[in-house]
Specification:
The protein is 44% helix and 18% strand. The protein contains 10 helices and 7 strands. The protein has a single domain (10-267), classed as 3-Layer(aba) Sandwich (Rossmann fold), CATH 3.40.50.150. β1 (59-63), α3 (69-76) and β2 form a beta-alpha-beta unit. Mean pLDDT is 88; it is low at 1-9. The chain has 270 residues and is of the alpha/beta class. The protein has a 7-stranded mixed sheet with strand order 3-2-1-4-5-7-6, sandwiched between helices.
Length: 270
């Protein structure tokens, strides 16, 4: 009898965890991750209020919270926040930030795909730039559905970072050309800061479920399969992009603003 290979996603998931642990060191120094102006903070608050309302003590679970940027925004709006991440390096920075700011945010080390939280325990679940990394999004969405209370809301903030628009492609090429001839390089980046990390990022991206790009319509279909309804897609993120642009070079800001980025709000049936 031939030995059959054992198929597992364990190796890929470990690579993803290690990658984000390495990114933790520079995460808060990069625009598009941390918030660098009150205009941007206000724009994020407006987006969260639009889809989730004010917190008024409601329980919120911020998955793949990283250094807790979104956790703090939810805390600003009076949600009772739990931030979860599987990178201890990220959580160390998240805890330090909350302590420095005097915030009562609960942090847990955990897996967004297997939270180990109780059924029907959160009013709100949020995540930012997590969905594109998922290995099995339907199973993950079912887990989030389980953890949400009846009528609870899920807010996904993500994008397709694989298939840039024509404007985005041209801006990226021109930016690279300017750097090559010595006229670029102003403004900050928000991606991997070394060639080795960039290569790791591309290797991971080629193997996750959304390797061809996390389009909003594809995410919506999988959310429906997981049992969510009342799903809305919001691509009007211009206020956030405009506030971030001052921290990027002109071309980087243009590239970012023309990407397919979105917020998807979905509800668990009451």
């Amino acid at each position: 009898m031939l030995n059959q290979p054992i198929l597992s996603n364990h190796d890929l998931r470990d690579e993803i965890k290690a990658y984000w642990s390495l990114r933790a060191e520079t995460f808060d120094s990069q625009p598009g991750h941390e918030i660098f102006s009150e205009d941007e903070r206000s724009a994020w608050h407006a987006l969260l209020r639009k889809h989730l309302g004010d917190g008024t003590g409601k329980a919120a679970l911020d998955l793949a919270c990283g250094t807790a940027v979104v956790s703090h925004l939810l805390d600003d709006l009076s949600f009772k926040v739990t931030g979860m991440d599987w990178s201890e390096a990220m959580l160390e920075r998240a805890r330090a930030k909350a302590k420095k700011r005097g915030r009562q945010i609960r942090f847990l080390m955990g897996d967004a795909e297997r939270t180990m939280e109780d059924d029907n325990s959160y009013d709100v679940i949020t995540n930012r730039h997590l969905v594109w990394t998922l290995v099995d999004p339907v199973a993950c969405f079912r887990e989030w559905h389980r953890v949400l209370k009846p009528s609870g809301r899920l807010l996904i903030i993500d994008g397709d970072f694989v298939n840039p628009s024509l404007v985005s492609r041209l801006a990226k090429k021109l930016s690279a050309l300017l750097v090559k001839v010595g006229f670029g390089g102003s403004g900050q980046q928000n991606g991997p800061h070394t060639p080795a990390l960039a290569q790791t990022h591309q290797n991971i991206l080629s193997r996750v479920h959304f390797s061809q790009g996390a389009r909003a319509e594809a995410v919506v279909e999988l959310l429906k399969q997981a049992g969510f309804d009342k799903i809305t897609v919001d691509t009007r993120l211009g206020a956030i992009h405009r506030s971030q642009r001052k921290n990027f070079s002109f071309l980087k800001g243009l590239e970012r603003a023309t990407q397919h980025r979105y917020a998807i709000c979905a509800q668990k049936h009451g």
